[in-house]
From TrEMBL, chains A, B, C, D:
PROSITE patterns: VOC
Gene3D superfamilies, sorted: 2,3-Dihydroxybiphenyl 1,2-Dioxygenase, domain 1
Xref: InterPro entries: Glyas_Bleomycin-R_OHBP_Dase (IPR029068), Glyas_Fos-R_dOase_dom (IPR004360), GlyoxalaseI/FosfomycinResist (IPR050383), VOC_core (IPR037523)
VOC domain boundaries: 148-269
Species in which this protein is naturally found: Winogradskya consettensis
Protein name: Catechol 2,3-dioxygenase
Length: 316, 316, 316, 316
């Protein structure tokens, strides 16, 4: 895939996200105790949580819902003018906690998204004020100590269509992809700035729409992920696979399932960034993927079959 | 300092740099054996070296010169149009190894810089071909294993003037700064994309022009830096200070002097990035800096007195 | 110093220790929140705390006392017969929580010690039961996550005399030492098994008796110590020096002061062990020590002047 | 299994080992380039290699032989008297490079062993002299940087018999074991001092005798093992499984096959030691092992089927 390096990057980063869970308080417990987020706001059906180095007022909203899954993904525009340049807006709302006016739309697979410019800054209080003023809140020193939301990996019934949407409408750039034997994309990794990726679309084997593969949080070190594995082990959290290193994007990873059923990744990319403005998309074939992950780990079956909400595969 | 978030980011990243050294082969030995760069090209008076994850054909050029110091810093434009938008060019040259046409200029303190768009990709050969095709060369597994050039810290006789140049001409954004009691800046950290910083200017206490404080290389982990300290210890490399963590920017650091006398930093920022497009410059006062580095280390005297080329302070 | 390799090693390891503190609850807060110990027992004037991988029922007892300092150090014999072989016992007591009969004595500098064989095993409950049955309690995932007590460093007015006591009476072996220009020992590191050291005596510049330099806790990684530095920073704990690496014994260290004033070390030795049964004592001279710690850090002044209880130096 | 804590520990540590390889120079290349050992001696059919923190003159001898496998394992006695106490000696030889008189014997499965007291110290030369005199040689800063040989895991046709030999004759202590449904041991981990284990016997499913499961080298950190995985990946070394953490003994591990076919483990135990002189053997059942390794990794098939020399299983 090619992109125009001179096209302005109108989306700065992925912002807060909403997750649905059938067990709100259990999910909250996982995010607070294991991932080390902090509860910062609450309403009748949801809880707002913050990662310690997010400059914005909240990072994840957990919403009580019959089935697990992903709600809205908010994206911050790069500036007021960038916000105006973005096309395809369905409607504008002003009732989102911590954000100013949000322009809502859906991707071609039905995932809800919202772009915004105005946002409230996180304000630490006496219990989490950091010693160094260049971080949002004190380092929690608890559980996985995730620094920030890193990326969202969506399932989609039509990778090429959502991929085109990301490239054409949002101006995201495809850094790596999996191509099927027929040459079409099976999964695509897009970035918004210099991170290796921010938004990922993976083919949904069930043909369903609007589902989630996982959301991921970044840690500062691989050691935090190794320790998080011990924390999950003792806390009875389901470890799906890892820790190991992906061949694609070389991310060091651990996948666990939060109590509501959503897959959560802890990830670390070391100092790897995509600095080249004309980075050429890396394509991985079936043969290459047959080698397994970077150090040879075979991909676990559930990685291909579990998504939220859980749906029966077609024909069963 | 404020900036316009909608202003396009016309410089993508700092590119290769030139360093002067009075002891070319000794300096080369340090960069190859201790930092783990690879020699990729050589001419009569200089050696071109490559870090294993640089997508470009070379990262550092060591040039034999009577005195240590910094030569040209090359900056890659974000695109062909971005290159055209940059003002203040002195002349264009086409004789730089591995780069296309380069637009040359100097900063207000006399440091030479060059902006370019066309660049040659690094091509691994049979001796350094990586197993994973999303990295430029095989992981060296030697010395400090630095992944890439991270930033350049220049000494300047006039911080406000060079700072204005970075902001106004290059469109760089100031993420953190040290302010003197009179409110003027004593040191400024600017970034070009989402890294915490790429270009730094520090006040030159000697009043001299065009000098270097240090260049820095990024490692994937803090552990690589701790091990590098052992490698330097056994190799007889002068360790100036560290490993420790800066309060400013929170960079984990180690400072050593290469055989030519130039100060070299090994640095790691964990997963810290500046994602906010309207990040407000963090200012550090003298009182705040009196607390020392993040964990209390007092700044070593030579950090304020050593630069290259070495010059006698005024009045002595 | 020489020792007879065939002499049985009658002391297996240092056991629980008692610390005095003028601020019992504040000290308890530090040990629980920052070091990650767990309160397991309490009486009128003291609190018993446990590190997560101690097989015994408690690790540290904090005792309310007007002045900070060290109380008894308990040492576990290698077996019932080993216990009988140890000479120089003052009296036997059976009222120590979690221990069987204890043979009490003092070292030549007046530090109280007790040797025992019978000991209660730690029994995890539903809130700290580990997933793997080969560890005593669940991994806390909180603060510094110290695994176990590592060593005690005593101040003494007479290093040669206490050193002889360690060697002759306890059968400990000197692995490293600092020698003064007159050839006498200024500090001595002794081990009881295959660890690099367990008991250390450092000359007390004040001439006082029975004081403490520090007690140390082992972490699994250096990364835990780097993170602990951040936890201490945000918690307002006084960081005295580090993280850095000692030249002597090569221990990676961080020194902090707990709220009661006692110096606490977090330490990691990597995979370093003393396997040679005829290890020859390594001696460090003043000239060698002038190079600073392993990577060049100069020893901070308070490291030579602070001990507990705090006493005025002689002649002042 | 019980042991008498008062029985002296007559074996201090496992000493150098011999490995057979059909491709001597290729195996040497792996040990030097990937594991970072150093060639220190050579004769017609073998090469002697040294790990950087081994106080003895050599660590591994690679011997050209038609089939891969393990040769002699040398064990250092705890002292001259300890050497005399050891029974069951077949003969004494004095022709082993770097060692004094060696008392030879075989374990019940036919593995050759030798116990010795006199040993030559490693002497660094100008190319590997360490800056700190408490380590044997300079830190290599190359490949996996293994510090020392950690343990040997033998295959045996009769675990109970070899286990009794280890306990009764050598005085080793069983720290953990796998028990079959009939209560007999399938694998046993024994230690000689305070390490978690030094000698391991695993049931040989082929019924053959004298074979090797793997030898292991200790690294200082888990990060060294993660990096070693990258080094092996780029060097084309076969990674069998890992990095991951064993449930048994909690060792962080990576298993690779050296060019001769012998399985090599890189391992790290953090600060875990067996300090209790009356440690009770931990027994793992089939049901417990069905949970996989500590974080859930399923044991790879070849782990149960590959040993050296390679032999066809019975009945095929």
């Amino acid at each position: 895939m090619n992109h125009d390096p001179d096209r302005p990057r109108d989306i700065a980063h992925i912002g807060p996200v909403e997750l649905y869970t059938p067990v709100l308080e259990e999910s909250r417990g996982f995010f607070v105790d294991v991932l080390s987020l902090r509860e910062v706001h609450r309403d009748d059906t949801s809880v707002y949580l913050h990662t310690w180095d997010d400059y914005q007022s909240w990072t994840v909203r957990l919403i009580q819902r019959e089935q697990a899954g992903i709600g809205r993904t908010y994206l911050r525009a790069s500036g007021p003018q960038a916000l105006e340049r973005l096309p395809g807006i369905d409607k504008r709302v002003s009732d989102v906690y911590g954000l100013g006016e949000v322009s809502l739309f859906t991707d071609p697979d039905g995932h809800e998204m919202g772009v915004y410019w105005d946002t409230a800054r996180y304000e630490a209080d006496d219990t989490d004020r950091p010693a160094l003023k260049n971080q949002a809140a004190a380092y929690p020193g608890r559980g996985a100590n995730v620094r920030r939301l890193d990326h969202v990996n969506y399932l989609t019934a039509d990778v090429p269509k959502t991929s085109a949407f990301l490239a054409d409408v949002l101006g995201a750039r495809c850094t790596e992809q999996i191509v099927k034997d027929d040459g079409s994309a099976q999964a695509v990794w897009f970035n918004l700035g210099q991170k290796t990726y921010d938004l990922v679309y993976t083919e949904d084997w069930t043909g369903a729409n609007g589902r989630l593969h996982h959301i991921a949080f970044a840690t500062d070190t691989r050691e935090e992920i190794l320790r998080a594995a011990d924390v999950c082990l003792d806390a009875g959290v389901h470890i799906e696979t890892g820790p190991h290193k992906h061949a694609i994007q070389q991310t060091f990873f651990l996948y666990v399932w939060e109590p509501g059923g959503n897959r959560i990744e802890l990830c670390n990319s070391g100092a790897r960034l995509i600095l080249a403005p004309d980075w050429e998309t890396i394509s991985w074939t079936r043969a290459e993927r047959a080698k397994g992950q970077a150090w040879g780990l075979k991909t676990i079956d559930t990685f291909h079959t579990h998504g939220t909400p859980v749906v029966p595969p077609p024909g069963r």
